Amino acid sequence: MDDAQLLRYSRHILLTELGPDAQDKFGAAHALVVGVGGLGNPAAHFLAAAGLGKLTLCDADHVDLTNLQRQILYATPDIGRAKVDAAAARLAAINPDVRIDQVATRVGAAELAPLVAKADVVLDCTDNFVTRHAINRACVAAGKPLVSGAALRFDGQIAVFDVRSPDSPCYHCLFGEGDELEETRCATMGVFAPLVGIVGATQAGEALKLIAGVGETLAGRLLILDALTMQWRDVRVPRDPACPVCASR
After folding, report:
1. Mean pLDDT across the stretch 162-173?
2. Which one of 34, 138, 172, 242 has the lowest number of neighbouring Cβ atoms within 10 Å?
3. Which long-range contacts (CB under 8 A, 24 or more apart) does 182-189 make?
4. What pTM was estimated for this model as a whole?
5. For the chain, what are the domain ranges?
6. Could you give the CA distance from residue 5 to residue 241 in angstroms, rounded to a whole number?
7. pLDDT for 61-79, tens place per residue?
8. 204, 125 Cβ separation under 8 angstroms
9. Coil, helix or strand at residue 95
């Protein structure tokens, strides 16, 4: 690190649990952020500000007026612009040291496999189960840790699925692909703006801990937030020994 970087990241370097070694790990790391909406905005923001070496942003959407209530990387002049382009420009202004790749398409299994294989950690900031399960399968296949977040109305969830640990479940262990789960989105149900900030920032925090190898992550746990009463619940998630996705790993 040069003098400017030492100053920029000094508040992390001052933490005994992190220090210069962890900051060097951040600078060498590559995170894949799938979904650059309400969750992906704060997650990518904090990862870039923390000095992550490379970010790959995936999203096929364009900025809409309704996004500006909660998607903090975008401004009114960005309306109509591809989200990955607008986000990359804003993140580069926050920290020009971060390399940013943009994938302006809806990613499926074929696209996710090489993207996940190149990343050190994957953040699922999407809002549909099809993509979530595709991300999970790619992470299990590549042996990469997955940080998952969800937010709707006043309800938030964060979990880490780290298949590098033999006892850690995968996303499918918690939400089976064949389960009858109603697909609801903030476009029809609404979402409390600060909630996505809390969840996305927590995802970034978990990703940074995974990269640095410090603290205790949410692997094997589901953290649930009711933002209306500001109450948190921590639920243990066991690995399913019969899981069709991760049982054979």
Report:
1. 93
2. 242
3. 183/128, 183/129, 184/152, 185/127, 185/128, 185/152, 186/38, 186/127, 186/151, 186/152, 186/153, 187/66, 189/152, 189/153
4. 0.95
5. 3-236
6. 46
7. 999 999 999 999 999 999 9
8. no
9. coil
